[in-house]
Amino acid sequence: MTRAAAIEGALAGLTVALYAFLLAPVGVVVALAFNASPLATFPITHLTLGWFAALTGDPAILKALKTSLVLGVTVSLISTSLGTAAAYALARFRFGGRDMVQMVLTIPILVPHIILGIGLLLSFHLAGLVKSFPLLVAGHVAITLPYVVLTTRHRLEAIPHSLEEAAQTLGANRLQSFLAVTMPLALPAIVTALLFAFMISFDEITATLFWLPPNVQTVPTQIMAMLEYSVDQKINALATVLIMATVALPILAILYAQARAATSRSGMRRT
Amino acid sequence: MTRPAAPAWAIPWCLLAPALCCVAAFVIAPVACVGLYSFWSHLATGAVNMSFTLENWRDLFTDPFYGEILLKTIRLAAVSTVVCAVLGYGPAYYLTLQPARRRNAFVLLLFLPSWISYIVRSMSWLHILGPNGLVNTALLGSGLVSSPLPLLYNDFSVYVGLIQYLLPLMIINIYIGLQLIDRNVVDAARTLGASDAQAFLAVTFPLALPGLSAGCLLSFILAIGTYITPMVLGGPGTTYYGNLVYDTVVSQQDWPLGATLSLVVVFFLALSLYGYGRLAGFSTMFRETQP
Q1: Which of A47, B100, B138, B219 has the smallest count of CB within 10 Å of its CB?
Q2: Of A27-31, A133-137, A240-244, B278-282, which one has max mean pLDDT?
Q3: Residue A219 pLDDT > 90, yes or no?
Q4: How far is the first Cα of chain A from the last one, in angstroms, to the nearest whole number?
Q5: Residue range B52-289 in CATH 1.10.3720.10
């Protein structure tokens, strides 16, 4: 018994140490972003929000932020529409080639982003197109699509088919029954898919660097470009903004999904 | 009601068509396109000569420069994968021992770093390992060293950054593998007289192998193609295979050669998938032989 306790104690120690290894460096970036010293080093002399204010005065950073936001919103809307339609087909219908379709839709997860980056660049070129914003959108949609399908499919499968059939018996057509019955019940998964697609797009850098049109940067590539000169406080502030966005968004998504799942479960129980 | 309804068999395909077209046009065709370019050549003018040649492939196999960098990259990928697997197994196992509430908190904390931007996680090491970074400040302050240790912009910092990037993915995969095990089987082994260690080695570990192999597959593939980590944390002489591909395609604009180089990454992807299939196959074999 004591030996088992010792092993568990050792595992606990290792776990805490590795979590610190994973999270502490990021914590350091956040701490430094509030440090008044312009050198981006320790010790922390006194606290300031000045570096965040400095971000708003930098046109290159603002432009990158705008590009990333527009790209992320466009990509998540397109990807979630395509992905949800596909997930609905997979969840609701039995047809020949279904396994094959599932496999094809997961291919983008398996292909390393560096290959996706080169491939799409070369195929756009072969088709006579130049690096442009639509190239970024196309690539990001392909990257985020499998995650949308995975996120929405489970939820769609959990919704009893009989609900939709009931609506159809009452005179709704397929589209109406989907919009009035299935869609509201699947909403938590659809919103989660939107947020995750946005996050993945907002973060992507490996493939994006191959696709950037001239004079266009996204937030991650802007950080990359800034790092080539020096590690200054503006980078820490921008990184902190990014950390806040990528940590707060999924937590909000989870809380929302849990709240919705709880209400729709109790709703289903009542009916 | 005037419009005739679509035949039932066509409905799922209409719903799937946009997504399938997207994957076909933006993933499958582009990868095929990479194959095509690898047999073309780059002209001095910057244009692409679309007549068949094996020039790029000959360069790849005869120039020892590519082989050296590839070997260095395979070592990086293999070492980081093994380090992550060895380090990550303990915490993944520890999580399965925790009561549900604490376990969920731990899992959330584990997903947290994988949500944080890759570039931010990479650059965060600049503040830790740099000459004025946390580690050197502490070492100098305590008098253990008299001048800052060279911890940054070398292979060491690339390994550290990459391991930090891959570790959460590895732990999550091992954890999922462990979670899928039927606890009754482990209890049965204990009832039949197995010690903790025996039950772990004979039952838990083999049954959880699919999770571990998925984690290894994922981190190996990600590590082979990485170029961001070496770009941020590497220095002179830390060119890895991904950097080579990136420089050839983006800086030198030699797309046919870049395509050829990147197909090596695809080859390793196929090899890893094959290895994964074999490993996962073995574990199903184990499962079938369980009484």
Answers
A1: B100
A2: A133-137
A3: yes
A4: 50
A5: yes
Tokens representing residue B270 in the block? 């196929």
pLDDT tens per residue across span A227-271 = 988 777 889 999 998 888 778 777 777 777 777 767 665 655 544
Extents of the domains making up chain A: 56-270
Provide mean pLDDT across the span B52-67.
90
Output the pLDDT for position B289. 34
List the structure tokens of A103. 């496999």
Tell me how far apart the alpha carbons of residues B21 and B27 are, in angstroms, rounded to a whole number: 10
State how far the alpha carbon of A50 is from the alpha carbons of A33, B67, B84, B123, B185, in Å.
9, 49, 39, 21, 59
Alpha helices of chain A — where are they, by DSSP H? 2-33, 50-56, 59-92, 98-110, 113-126, 133-158, 161-169, 174-177, 183-203, 208-211, 219-227, 233-270
Minimum Cα–Cα distance from A244: chain B residue: B116
Whether the Cβ atoms of residue B87 and residue B212 lie closer than 8 Å to each other: no
Q: Is A113 in contact with B119 (Cβ distance < 8 A)?
A: no
Digit-coded pLDDT (tens) for A148-194: 999 999 889 988 888 888 888 888 888 888 888 888 999 888 998 99
ipTM of model over 0.95: no
> Does the reported pTM lie above 0.90?
no
- Closest by CA position to B173, among listed B77, B282, B78, B81: B81
Whether A22 and B221 lie within 8 Å, measured CB to CB? no
Is residue B163 within 8 A of residue B215, CB to CB? The reply is no
Q: What is the DSSP string of B224-279?
A: HT--HHHHHH--TT---HHHHHHIIIIIS--HHHHHHHHHHHHHHHHHHHHHHHHH
A199 contacts B269? CB cut-off 8 A: no
Q: What is the DSSP string of B12-60?
A: HHHHHHHHHHHHIIIIIHHHHHHHHHTTSEE-TTS-EE-S---HHHHHH
Query: A56-270, which class in CATH?
Result: mainly alpha
CA separation for the pair A116, A144 (Å, rounded): 12
* Residue the block writes with tokens 């996204």: A218
Record: contact B27-A116, CB cut-off 8 A? yes
Answer whether A22 touches B (CB < 8 Å): yes
Say if A184 is an interface residue toward chain B (CB within 8 Å): no
- Residue of B28, B124, B134 for testing the chain A interface, max A β-carbons within 10 Å: B124
The residue of chain B with its CA nearest to that of A220 is B119
Helix/strand/coil (H/E/C) assignment for every residue in A57-123: CCHHHHHHHHHHHHHHHHHHHHHHHHHHHHHHHHHHCCCCCHHHHHHHHHHHHHCCHHHHHHHHHHH
